[in-house]
Design brief:
Structural class: mainly alpha
CATH architecture of the largest domain: Orthogonal Bundle
Largest sheet: none
Number of helices: 9
Radius of gyration: 19 Å
Order of helices and strands: HHHHHHHHH
Number of domains: 2
CATH superfamily of the largest domain: RNA polymerase sigma factor, region 2, helix turn helix motif
Shape: globular
Number of strands: 0
CATH topology of the largest domain: Rna Polymerase Sigma Factor, Chain: A
Strand content: under 5%
Length: 196
């Protein structure tokens, strides 16, 4: 009976395969997300060896707890959340964690919903003096000096290409909080690059 057929999305089918322990599904996850997860962890920690351990431990933990995954977010978001949480634990262990705090959205937006203090543009004298390759190198160097809450949103948004929902799910924050974090992170990065 065609009316009784159940249609599963590709992600649902992938999740079912992961929960069933199919090796091919886990290999597919590694091919699709492994390099991105490692890149994210390296940028978070600044140490490839520690990043490899974090990603490996996170994936082993996910493998053992996949049965508890309830599908409220994408598999990709769940993977990034696991690596993010492990990286934060490592940063805290190293006592490198810097919390910039979260203020109410009212402190950043006017009644019209616009930013109260807009970010300065990139068209200043410093950007004109630097060629693209040097600017990119400088941006990458300065990102490593940003507080981790700034660095992580820029990495997920700009380097890993996650969308708003995926980032919010991975960091367990609201879209409004994400907008504030991205605004602050971009402003801090611009200030660091211009001041370098």
């Amino acid at each position: 009976m065609q009316g009784d057929e159940v249609h599963h999305s590709p992600e649902t089918a992938q999740l079912d395969a992961l929960k069933a322990g199919h090796t091919s599904a886990w290999k597919e996850i590694m091919v699709l997300h492994g390099s991105g997860l490692l890149s994210f962890a390296i940028r978070m920690l600044g140490d490839r060896g520690a990043a490899e351990e974090i990603v490996q431990d996170s994936l082993v933990n996910i493998y053992h707890t996949i049965g508890r995954f309830d599908g409220r977010c994408s598999i990709k978001s769940w993977l990034y959340r696991a690596v993010h949480n492990s990286a934060i634990d490592e940063i805290r262990r190293r006592k490198r964690y810097v919390d910039v705090g979260i203020d109410a959205e009212e402190n950043y937006f006017n009644e019209a919903g616009r930013w109260i203090n807009d970010c300065p543009g990139w068209d200043g004298l410093a950007a004109k003096r630097l060629d693209d390759k040097r600017l990119l190198t400088l941006v990458r160097e300065q990102m490593d000096h940003l507080p981790h809450t700034h660095r992580e949103v820029l990495l997920l948004k700009e380097f890993e290409g996650l969308d708003t929902t995926e980032i919010c799910d991975a960091l367990e924050i609201s879209p409004g909080n994400l907008r504030i974090r991205i605004h602050r992170a971009r402003a801090a990065l611009r200030a660091a690059v211009v001041g370098a």
